[in-house]
């Protein structure tokens, strides 16, 4: 076993120029106050919200219910440009679209829209870069630049919704039904902005996009205090714990934050989340050839999940957890490769033999570096 790399874990992003305030940064009361502070009638805030969240308008000239004399002032106060699309790449016959965004300060991030026959999922970034330093992830190799604002996170989803509404994605007009915080960054290291973004996504239209919290997944490498805090927010989103190894020795190498919060501590927090929210936790496990895909590690993973349920009151494991195996996606210059299909099948068989609900993730966007672990925001 090689020794884990002693890389810094960055929880506080470097301070850079603050993004301009946007309607999506504020709740309804805050929007009204902002409009009134600009010397304009407060009720105009709801009109702006309707244009942004319900009508998905991005052209001020199309906001014809706003007086032309105050339109520029209103848009300037609450709808500044936050992100510029630099490149859109398509895969899967156009049903997967990756967008490279330039933020106001030049930072680059990526989001991915994935259309399926029965749903549309947006994979969004929460940070420019990532400070968690997981060696098999392209984003983690670039380090952390800064946290994204609430509105910058929300804008990725709204932009995807516009593309669907305008028929730019094959399959006809549609709507975003699912959002996964699995793009660039560690969501719980940008906690307040991510939680506020979830509230904007789930606030009833026109205050927000009116999505169901059950269609939103927040991923984390295991920031235990934040997992516990999220459990108390009253937001029944799905928690996805990026475990990748069932033992501390290996996980210390693959997920350096494990040296701060162990496998047992991360699983205990995840179980507490499941009990509090009544939402099943997803265990994310990237399958790496000869690293974490041995049959005995499948047995160990099942055992630690079973033990967690037993320790916490005997609840059956499939009642609180689901294992999502991820075929490792290649990144440039990496020594890590995907598991042999036969080893992957045996891993699944052993988990299911012990009663652990298990699936293998459908990989989308690999050929445009848009799959899990591949987002690097290269210009």
What does this structure look like?
The protein is of the alpha/beta class and 379 residues long. The chain has helices at residues 28-37, 44-54, 68-78, 138-141, 150-165, 191-202, 224-231, 248-254, 263-277, 295-311, 341-353, and strands spanning 83-91, 96-103, 108-115, 120-123, 127-129, 144-147, 178-181, 216-220, 238-242, 281-287, 321-327, 358-360. A ten-stranded mixed β-sheet has the order 1-2-3-4-7-8-9-10-11-12, covered by helices on one side. Strands 5-6 form a two-stranded antiparallel sheet. Strand 1 (83-91) and strand 2 form a beta hairpin. The longest helix has 17 residues, at 295-311. The radius of gyration is 21 Å and the shape is elongated. The two termini are 36 Å apart. The relative contact order is 0.12.
Number of β-strand runs: 12
Strand content: 15-25%
Which regions have little confidence, pLDDT < 50, spanning 5+ residues? 1-10
**Number of contiguous helices:** 11
Structural class: alpha/beta
Taken in chain order, the helices and strands follow as: HHHEEEEEHEHEHEHEHHEHEHE
**What characteristic shape results from the CA principal axes?**
elongated
Helix content: 25-40%
Largest sheet: 10 strands, mixed
Radius of gyration computed on alpha carbons: 21 Å
Average residue-wise pLDDT: 89
Distance between the termini: 36 Å
Main sheet strand line-up: 1-2-3-4-7-8-9-10-11-12
